[in-house]
Amino acid sequence: MTSRLTFDAVSLAYPGRDRGSSSTRVLEGIDLSVSSGDFVVVIGRSGSGKTSLLNLAAGFQQPAAGAVLLDGQPISGPGAERAVVFQDDALYPWLNARDNIAFPLALKGVAKDARRKAAEELLARVGLAGSGDRRIWELSGGMRQRVGIARALAAEPRFLLLDEPLGALDALTRSKLQLFLLDIWKTSGAGALLITHSIDEALLLATRIVVLQPAPGRIGAILDSGFAGEILSGADPRKVRQSVLFRSMHDGLTALIHDNAHEELAA
Ligand SMILES: Nc1ncnc2c1ncn2[C@@H]1O[C@H](COP(=O)(O)OP(=O)(O)O)[C@@H](O)[C@H]1O
Ligand SMILES: [Mg+2]
């Protein structure tokens, strides 16, 4: 079944820090939609409102104006059909890898044997077969993020909401997990909304790239990207990165994100 997550003229404000001080407008006039099978990547400078946007989709926050909708219904809070993965894995240190992954199933009331079986399958799917008994502190950063993603997949969500999920990893692990994410996204059939700082990552993973401009956060540009499709069809990511189109889109995005003076001249 196709699902759609929609931002309809969404604004978000945080209250002022001191009593009497005016509130800060963080997002303004956001129109965006993510459907099953989309991989939407939101990129923008620090403070441009990326996490706030994801928090709205997760239902952690409510818009000041406009609406965030799931299949036409306003989102009123978190839900199992929208799984969230943060930069810090947020795993439960008192549980081993398997029980972390099985946790959402326990919440759903799935019986113990069935949970264990599902968790083993998910461990295999994220390349961690045989690691179920390991404690969280025995896992590398990359393995922890795999466990976090496996846990997110356990509830068979319709949307994966990922806030800089690979941001804390070393470059080599990050490249590997980018391909892993593409694979997971494709096989799950879910829609993905991923936040990143990395232009390279945005170009490799996205079917659509959304550039957020700061203060207040608003959409500066939306670009379609086809590199994820090429990679999933077997293209070598290193070759893809070296292509003329990739480089020119990289330059274009760099200008859009960092070059405000240029933007004002163009306006
Ligand atoms: N809970 C909060 N209260 C007040 N201001 C906040 C809060 N969270 C974020 N902000 C402000 O909102 C803006 C956008 O933050 P955020 O969504 O975290 O941006 P990003 O993820 O792009 O770095 C920043 O100016 C930040 O300081
Ligand atoms: Mg953020």
Structure characterization notes:
- The protein is of the alpha/beta class.
- The chain has two domains: 4-81 and 157-266, Rossmann fold (3-Layer(aba) Sandwich), CATH 3.40.50; 92-156.
- The chain is built from ten helices and ten strands.
- The protein has helices spanning 50-58, 97-107, 112-125, 141-154, 171-188, 199-205, 227-232, 237-242, 244-258, 260-266; strands at 4-14, 24-35, 39-44, 65-70, 73-74, 82-85, 159-163, 191-196, 208-213, 218-224.
- Strands 6-7-8-3-9-10 form a six-stranded mixed sheet, sandwiched between helices. A four-stranded antiparallel sheet has the order 2-1-4-5, with helices on one face.
- A hairpin with a 2-residue loop joins strand 4 (65-70) and strand 5 (73-74).
- The radius of gyration is 19 Å and the shape is globular.
- The relative contact order is 0.17.
- Magnesium ion binds at residues 50-51.
- Adenosine-5'-diphosphate is lined by residues 14, 24, 26, 44, 46-52.
- This is Taurine transporter ATP-binding subunit.
- InterPro entries: AAA+_ATPase, ABC_transporter-like_ATP-bd, ABC_transporter-like_CS, ABC_transporter_ATP-bind, P-loop_NTPase.
- Belongs to the ABC transporter superfamily.
- Pfam families: ABC_tran.
- Residues 5-244 form the ABC transporter domain.
